[in-house]
Amino acid sequence: MDKSKRLFLKSKRSFRKRLPPIGPGDRIDYRNMSLISRFISEQGKILSRRVNRLTLKQQRLITIAIKQARILSLLPFLNNDKQFERTQSTPRATGPRTINK
Hints:
Helices cover 28% and strands 0% of the residues. By secondary structure, it is mainly alpha-helical. The termini are far apart.
């Protein structure tokens, strides 16, 4: 079949419409911790709009709510629990240091 005569075939897969992460009855507020915690990564960072699938206005309101909750100590600024966990380390050499040239 010639490329110029090739028909554009549609995919036969049916796609499910994704539900919006914020429902029409949900209020975006700094006190609504169950809603806010969905938009924060494990490290405590605010997730991007693409990842959240939010509109621009919703992302702005979420960002403001997260920042207010952080200031009021409802949320931590950083979540570095993994940083302080220590795994078994290798023993250090206690002999004199040598300079490699």
